[in-house]
Structure formats: C-alpha cells, structure tokens
Amino acid sequence: MREVLIRGAEVVVTMNPARDELAGADVLIRGGAIAAVGFGLTTTGDIVEARGCVVTPGLVNTHHHLYQTLTRAVPGGQDALLFGWLKTLYPIWSRFGPEEMRVSALVGLAELALSGCTLSSDHLYLFPNGARLDDTIDAAREIGLRFHPTRGAMSIGESKGGLPPDALVEREEDILSDCIRLIDAHHDAADGAMCRVGVAPCSPFSVSRDLMRDAAILARDKGVMLHTHLAENDEDVAYSLAQFGCRPGDYAEALGWTGEDVWHAHCVKLDRAEIDLFARSGTGVAHCPCSNCRLGSGIAPVRAMLDAGVHVALGVDGSASNDAGNLIQEARQAMLLQRVANGADAMSAREALEIATLGGARVLGRADCGALIPEKRADIAVWDLGGIEAAGQWDPVAALVFCGPNRVRDLFVEGRQVVRDGHVTTLDLPRVIETQTRLARRLVG
Predict the structure, then answer these.
(1) Which of 346, 363, 380 is the last residue of a domain?
(2) At CA 40, angle to CA 379 and CA 21, rounded to 5?
(3) In degrees rounded to 5, what are phi and psi of residue 36?
(4) How many CB atoms lie within 10 A of CB 46?
(5) H or E element: which one contains 114?
(6) DSSP 116
(7) 278-307 in b/e burial notation, b at 16+ Cβ within 10 A?
(8) What tens digit of pLDDT does each residue of 270-322 get?
(9) Kind and range of the H or E element at 104?
(10) pLDDT in tens, 12-26
(11) CB within 8 Å of 441: residues ≥ 6 apart
(12) Domain hosting residue 378, numbered range
C-alpha cells in the first residue's frame, strides 16, 4: 500500500491525550496506520491537499440496524411509540431474505461513510427466509468500512408473552450455535481488525432470561463483546418491572450484562443508581438521539452519565426509526438535546465530536482507533469547510458540529480511500440505490 500524505489542513483534530488541534498540520499514512502527524511532512506517495479542511478521526457508529434502510417512513409506524412501531414493522421484515439484507447493508454503510463514519456496529436480530449475518459482513467487506456486526436474536414470540410474532423467533440452542459459527468464521481480535463479531440478544422483551445468561457466558468464553437494547422508553421499563420485578439495570447486572465488554443501546430511562452501576462496571452506552426523538422515547441523561464516568458513544439506530444514517448530524443532535434538558452549556461541540470518535472507539473496545496518533489505524475523515454550510464560521472545529458540512469530502479506512471528493469509491452507489428502491417497492406490493 502506497503512502498517503494529507497535507496542510486548516486544523487536524488529533483526539490525543492533550486533545491537540494542530493548525496547518499534515497526516502521513503508511501501511494502514498513521505514521506521523506534524508539519512539513513529505512523501513519495500520494498527496491529498487539505487546505480549508478539518481533519478528524473517523466517526464511530455503535448502534445500527442496517436492514432497516429498506423500510424508511413506513405508514403506520410514522407516529407510533416503540412497541407499536415494532408491531407495524415486524410483518414487513418477515418478508426479507439474503438479498434484502445485503443490499440494505450496502446502502446503510455507504450513507454512514458519506457522513464521516469509518467504523460501524450493526445489530441484526432477525433472520427470515435464509438471511444470515454473513450477508451484512460481505457488504461491509465490499464497501471497505471497519465493521463490528453483532449476532442478535429473538426467542420469545407473542404466544409466550413476547413482542415479536412467532414466525420471527428462533430456538435458543440454534441461536447459540450460530453465534459460535459466526465468531469462529469472522471474528478477528487483532489490532487493525476489519471485522469483530459480538453477541446481541435483541432485548429483554424478546428473549428469555436463560438466553441472556447463556449469551453472556458464551461471549466471555469466546472473548467477544455483548450488546442489547436497554431502558429505551417508559414501556421498556414498565415491561421489566412487570415481568422481572426489577429495573432494567438490575436485570442486566443479575445476568452478567455489565462490564467493559458490554454496551447497551439507548438507556434513555436509566436512573441514578443504574448510571452509577454502569460507571463502576465500565459498561458502555450507545446514545441514539435522533431515534429517541423520532419514537418519542425521551432525552437520555447523557450529561449525568458523562459526569459519572460512563463511557458514552453515538449510534444512528435503524433507518426505520431515525430515518437517516448521518453520524455527524447525530453528534449535533446529541449536543442540542443535552442543551434542551440541561442548559446551553451542557455539552460543547468538541465534547460531542469526542463522543462521536474516541468515545465510540472506547465503547467498542478499539484502543487502536479513534485518534490521530502515530501507530493508530489510519481511519480519517476530511471535511471541506468551503461550502455554504460553514460560510462565515470563526471556529472550524466547532463549526463542524454546529453548522456542517454534513457530508465528508474524503474518507480513509485502514489507509484505503473509501470516499473521494464526496463520492464512494468502492461500489457503484447509484446502481445499488436503484436495486434498493426496487426491493422496497416489492415489499410494499
């Protein structure tokens, strides 16, 4: 792989321990890693001019349901709370197959890449008509994003008091067996890994207590991370109290679902004791502000979490509940919501950007990513502030979150250029979008 020199940036946001922001600096990429960050660097390789640009670590998305890019703005679910929204969508999702899973993942990952994302998790918890997690892993490999897919599952259907229809649930022994297969086939624990696999029963209202416990045991035996939804809204908390006799955080702790190898999505309704539990145990949170707004779930207590020492990251959540997959916009929304709840000084633009980069890498256990420091992986976003969005800005780093742009100019993953001049380089995106549109229309029919 040839060297690449990103030269003469307006500012390089390093996210190093000192949080240095280097005006006019260069970033040298060699062999998939950052070789140097400094001034007047030279190379015999390729040069990317970054005058007028902010250069940041690639953004990290810690919660998504990529398959949902096929079901945006579905009538009947547009104005529903979480449980009603799910009941509207489950019958549609039951008609998916391998092609729908793969194409929707390509579109969702491309959308993320264009918003500056270099590393994304995915939570796939239903597998109708022969679909497999492998379908999304193949999509991520084609587009070139770093990927942390999680093998989700639902095992408690409507007939047994769960929320999903019986046709979408699986036998628990089959779920655990497939988790082992996927980890053995795809998980790479090494630094610089392009794919790591997690274990992710969907939620406390769609799987049994036994599966939650067994999944935690399996994940720790295999050395992989755990992920699920938790305390997403008032309905979620009420279900936990009625079915388990405790709050969601207590339920998670009792079943082994706290620790540095665990991250939970949403956590909108965590109380003070649960926040303290997550801080003590190193449990991570994927904050999904746009989805929480869309479904009327509430404003997550992110300021309280951060002040307590909880590791917080961002997630776009599924594109049926957002209905977008733009991670830099998610950072802005996170900042604004904390200001709505706690005042105009509750979260700065720089703190939001840190959550979107270094915070995400920390939650996903990626010490090799999230900062522009020599020997870290070369996952880099280049943002051109020469457009109308940032015209008149005085502070280019803050402007990236306050104003935009909302689309990256260039994006490098493991030193490979995935976006150039605002266009995805690794696939024929117009053709993929055409296929996606055809598949969505077929589902409507």
Answers:
(1) 363
(2) 55
(3) -165, 150
(4) 12
(5) helix 98-114
(6) T
(7) bbebbbbbbbbbbbbbbbebbebbbbbbbe
(8) 999 999 999 999 999 999 999 999 999 999 999 999 999 999 999 999 988 89
(9) helix 98-114
(10) 999 999 999 999 999
(11) none
(12) 4-57+371-424
State whether the Cα torsion 205-225-291-324 is positive or negative: negative
Instruction: Tell me the pTM.
Output: 0.97
Q: Name the DSSP letter for residue 388.
A: G
Quick one: DSSP state of residue 387?
A: S
Q: How far apart are CA 363 and CA 95, in angstroms?
A: 33
Q: Say yes or no: 98 and 73 in one domain.
A: yes
The helix or strand, by DSSP H or E, that contains position 253, with its residue range, turns out to be: helix 248-254
The total domain count for the chain is 2
CATH code, 8: 2.30.40.10
What the block records as the tokens of 80 is 């529903």
- Count of CB atoms situated within 10 Å of the CB of 57: 31
Q: Which residues contact 7 (CB under 8 A, 6 or more apart)?
A: 26, 41, 47, 48, 49, 50
Give the Cβ contact number of residue 174 at 10 Å. Answer: 12
Cα gap 262→25, rounded to integer Å: 36
